[in-house]
Amino acid sequence: MANCEKGEEEVKMDKMPLLTPYKMGNFFLSHRVVLAPLTRQRSYGNVPQPHAVLYYSQRTSKGGFLITEATGVSDTAQGYAHTPGIWTKEQVEAWKPIVNAVHDNGGVFFCQIWHVGRVSHYDYQPNGQAPISSSDKGLTPQLKSNQLDVAEFTPPRPLATDEIPLIVNDFRLAARNAIEAGFDGVEIHGAHGYLLDQFMKDSVNDRTDQYGGTLENRCRFPLEVVEAVTKEIGPDKVGIRLSPFGAHAEAEDSDPEALGLYMAEALNKYSVLYAHYVEPRIVKSGVQAETSHSLLPMRTAFKGNFISTGGHTKETGNKAIVEGSADVIAYGRHFLANPDLPKRFELNAPLNKYNRETFYTPDPVIGYTDYPFL
Ligand SMILES: Cc1cc2nc3c(=O)[nH]c(=O)nc-3n(C[C@H](O)[C@H](O)[C@H](O)COP(=O)(O)O)c2cc1C
To answer: What does pTM read for this prediction?
Structure first.
């Protein structure tokens, strides 16, 4: 049947599922194509730079949802060159024009707050101290994404039990700062082998205190962060990203399904706005694999809004929305290379290819704001 013969209701249903509106808590999203958090390493001195105004504006659409690159919560949170922070007044002020630009273009903007834990080197630490973690287990050197350079890591120092509230407090203050900078909310980075994941995953966490051992104990610190942040800025402004199935930065779990499910159920108690799960097919950066695992049990257990990310195409995103396995979909590499990704989906236009070599280079333009629009 041709469209012209259909009633209005039916024609509306023809709209691509990814491009249908969605009310996420208090936010009215005009479509479901989310900008995933993407570290771009162009924030010199850990301070967001004016060129980020253009970068984020390019990827903003009216009613679109954007998440910032991972943003450090303190001076011990860093592990890479030129990643932004949100613990100083200068950083908060530097975020303001970027947030304003996204808002001026009609976007909803969350700040991803982050602590790398042991994925660091004493060069990035205050006074050249050892990075912190759940354990003293160090990371083996890893090939960087350009497949040429090797990242070295300094063996970490396990946090003492009574130090953990101090890090919880850093997350709380970072969330407060994010709101002061104008962000609509924060996403707690609980994924990819960084500090919170180093507590959740049993391949790293070998503690014998109340933060180690059982699943409940390993999830205690991340959930304390969730509690502190939701109390500080309100649960309707808080999301969390989790990658239970991931093996990033040598952080793996022997029972990822149980971990993902435990967190989904525990998060319900805090009424957070969304849970953002990385698809099991994403093993670690740049590595994707077929898997029989699925996020469906977590999607079903979690009562809030559900974001799925990792390896999505337009087709898999649409399918996930139709099937109800996610409410919105976060796109990383495609959104990085296609500032007008929702438009391209709408027009069924071809996508620019991403250039892995410039993902993390510090240039303020090349590989950053020079990807062409349609
Ligand atoms: C250049 C680059 C930087 C990334 N930085 C972050 C980050 O800061 N925080 C995060 O949670 N994930 C980060 N990721 C992961 C992405 O958010 C996303 O989950 C991943 O790329 C898989 O989605 P995709 O297949 O749509 O790219 C990064 C990925 C890439 C390619």
So the answer is: 0.96
